[in-house]
Design a protein that fits this description.
Helices cover 42% and strands 15% of the residues. It starts with a strand and ends with a helix. By secondary structure, the chain is an alpha/beta fold. The chain binds flavin-adenine dinucleotide (FAD).
Length: 204
Amino acid sequence: MKVHLVVAHPEKTSFNLALHQVAISTFKNRDINTSVSNLYTEEFVAIAGHTDVLDFPEDENFNLAKAQRWAQKNNSFVEDIKTEQQKLLSSDMLILQFPLWWWSYPAILKGWLDRVLSSGFAYGDGAELGRKKVMYSITTGGANNQEELEYYQQKIAGLYQDVFGFIGWQVMPAFIAHGVQQKSQQERTIILNNYEKHLQKQVC
Ligand code: FAD
């Protein structure tokens, strides 16, 4: 069992990074192998396009999905994409750790999805990657009532379905930490402990 963790938060003292550290120590204690991509510290390029593929034929119209399939066949992805894809190939499960921004992924993580989960590698005919497990660990601005909580559930289910449901991965229950900025230190410590329990139940 190997887990690949992708973290998308710009601040190392953030609650997102604290959750990430809980995951790392939980897996270490259970002898589960991990690899990590911290997208901000690695300055991961978030914009998908021409520069993702080396030597794409000049006389061909550039269509991203087509260029990705071409790069897959010709071993022509740029290094950062190759590195990320290799981490996925050697893992059984992916954990995405991120704050909910505009009801979605931070742009740097959306870019990771666009560039790394490429056509012909993660999905489509003959896709090399195969189907893995995926789990989201998300922080939010906070829900004030049951109705808002249900709205979050619905939006987060959509984020799963639109990407990982589409490519046929096994979707694990998300860990959602609501309103962490409004909580007391003690309440946040409880959330971190609950995350450890969630991981032990869902992953270990
Ligand atoms: P932080 O501010 O980093 O941390 C919260 C608190 O936890 C801080 O006081 C920190 O010191 C403390 N902390 C850190 N480590 C620990 C630890 N080990 N133990 C205890 N406490 C600790 N929210 C929504 O709900 N929907 C949206 O659509 C949405 N859109 C947004 C768009 C943008 C561009 C932005 C910037 C925010 C948006 N938000 C939205 C809010 C956002 O989701 C939250 O601000 C974010 O999830 C909070 O997580 P954080 O890691 O950034 O918190």
